[in-house]
Amino acid sequence: VTVSVLYWKSTGMTGKLKLPADPLSADARAELMGLFRSLSLRHDELGMEIVLNALLRNLTHHKMFDHAEAVIANCVVKQPFRSTNQAARFFYYDGLVKAMRLDYSGAHASLLQALRKAPERATGFRIAATKLDVVVQLLIGEIPPRSEFLQASMKDALQPYLVLTTCVRFGNLGRFQSTASKHQSQFEHDHTLSLIMRVRQNVIKMGLRRICQAYTRISLADVCVKLALDNPEDAEYIVAKAIHDGVVEARIDHEKGHIVTSETVDVYSTTEPLHAFQRRIAFCNAAHDEARRAMRYTSEMDDDEARLKELERKREALDRAAEDEDAGIDFADGL
């Protein structure tokens, strides 16, 4: 099962929508844009959702992520989506584009939306979205819970990503690189290879943090060996950048070529717990707002249509009664 099965050869869910025969070709892009404009003029919301996902699939297939970002920003579809399945596909492509454009927090939020809206039976889609979300979480600096990898329907497909997560958790750069090389074709198929290459810096930071927690003083040559780097000069640059970014509390003794770590700071004496709670509160508020927007209420137009139908029914009843009276039928005496 592929990520975006849209049933191209059918006439579409609206019964009138005709999509290009080869939606992944470069020639189909202009046709899809024209079709989206036509559907916008007709206010065909369901058709707009289908065509927008088809267009995003075309752009991401050709790795045109800057164009896809512009399409998402300008081709606005009315919220909430008419189709939950189309909403799941849209949020998947939105998460993929944001991840490629370095907006990892936004990508994580969109992928969570895609997984929430995807039907349980769409195993292939859920596997693809979970793979991408795992890599995005690693890029954010979070470690996905092990339960995500142990689902019965996803366990085998997520095995390479479990190995990568373990490498990031323990800062094992050598095993990380060997795993990325071993499963390179699989990661290319999943559109996650370029993102996984970015995770390398996080692996180095995690390994360096573990080294600084274990040693109060260590030479740059030993750091180079433990992180599987090419030379001590690279290790010195990486350590200096990590100290500047606040990843580790340490200083470099350039004369002796050592790293001297500082005393471990109690995290609860910092503002980190405050920021963590704030992120969770913002996530809960966003989920609540999304649930309220997804509720459907009877519009005034629907009420007017119901009243018109009721009046039409009463008028027809009166017309039938008048016709029966003209025909001289007396129901009291029977037929």
Secondary structure topology:
Blueprint: H1 27-41, H2 45-61, H3 65-74, H4 84-100, H5 104-117, H6 123-140, H7 159-170, H8 173-182, H9 184-189, H10 193-214, E1 217-219, H11 220-226, H12 232-244, E2 250-253, E3 258-261, H13 272-294, H14 300-326
Antiparallel strand pairs: 1-3, 2-3
Helix pairs in contact: 1-2, 2-3, 2-4, 3-4, 4-5, 4-6, 5-6, 6-10, 7-8, 7-10, 8-10, 11-12
What Rg do the Cα atoms give?
A: 29 Å
- Please tell me the overall pLDDT: 78
Beta-strand share of residues: under 5%
Helix content estimate = 55-70%
Biggest beta sheet summary: 3 strands, antiparallel
Tally of DSSP β-strands: 3
Oligomer: single chain
Give the distance, in angstroms, between the N- and C-terminal Cα atoms: 64 Å
User: From N to C, what is the helix and strand string?
Assistant: HHHHHHHHHHEHHEEHH
pLDDT < 50 runs, ≥5 residues:
1-15
What would you call the shape?
elongated
Class based on secondary structure composition and strand pairing: mainly alpha
Strand order of the largest sheet: 1-3-2
Give the helix tally.
14
